[in-house]
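User: My advisor, Dr. K., asked me to get a structural model of this assembly before our group meeting. I'm new to this, so sorry if the format is off. These are the inputs:
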Amino acid sequence: MLPDYALPGPGFLGGLLIGLAAALMLLGTGRIAGVSGLVAKSLALGGDAPWRVAFAFTIGLPLGAALVVAFIGPVPVTFPDLPATLITGGLLVGLGSRMGSGCTSGHGVCGLSRLSTRSVVATLTFMATGMVTVGLMGS
Amino acid sequence: MQTLIALVAGVIFGVGLALSGMLDPDRVRGFLAVTGRWDPTLAFVMGGALLPMIVAWRLRPALSQPLAGKRWHVPGTRGVTGELIIGAVLFGAGWGIAGLCPGPAIANLAVAPWAALTFLVAMVAGMALHTFAGRLGRAAGGGGGHP
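Assistant: The format is fine. Below is the predicted structure of the whole assembly, which you can bring to the meeting.
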């Protein structure tokens, strides 16, 4: 009974790859694949991973997306029309992820999978606030 | 070796984001639009991502150290703080407004570079605000420092 625009198959497959990448990071380097922390470390704004590790993971993300575009096909994206929307969202995501010690990857994937109380609370909180925000904006 | 592993992990993570539809801010906002045209795709992505990590957390105690490292750098179990909640509230609001979080925003540099860059410049400014506010707080002898 899923709507026809949903992508359960590709979503699950892509999710498995995201989880495998996070597992490789954890068992290989002993670190959490938390994107906000690794980006902050890449830019010398905090975080505790060695700079080279943080930077390598961060540049891997667009490289991976570029591989999909090159070998599989275009990735459809629809961004908000107004730059002000992107800027407001970006400021809140940057500040909030550092204050809350993590984002969708660190709390949502790495923390939930070990049932960390902090990550469960953070994930439920940002999902609820995200839903309220989209609801108020009239999607 | 750790650097190479991190690069490979980043690439696989980026491939996963692109395949899953999570680079599309409209689709992410669709998941959050529970009272509108709801798009459940993100729930499948989450489910897929949690499975390998549940296995990884179970394998970890069998390893005395990471495969390419000397010790584990896993966050401790600090309690739930006001800072955690306020941070998650701000993060969720920004996520809902733009439909982007840090991973997809960076991966989008390869797909929609100008829009991604607009978001990322603001995101880094937000991160810097936290870093420097924390330093000011510590310099003034206050708490609220970030570990």
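One thing worth pointing out at the meeting: The CA atoms of residues 72 and 143 of chain B lie 27 Å apart.

User: Perfect, thanks a lot.
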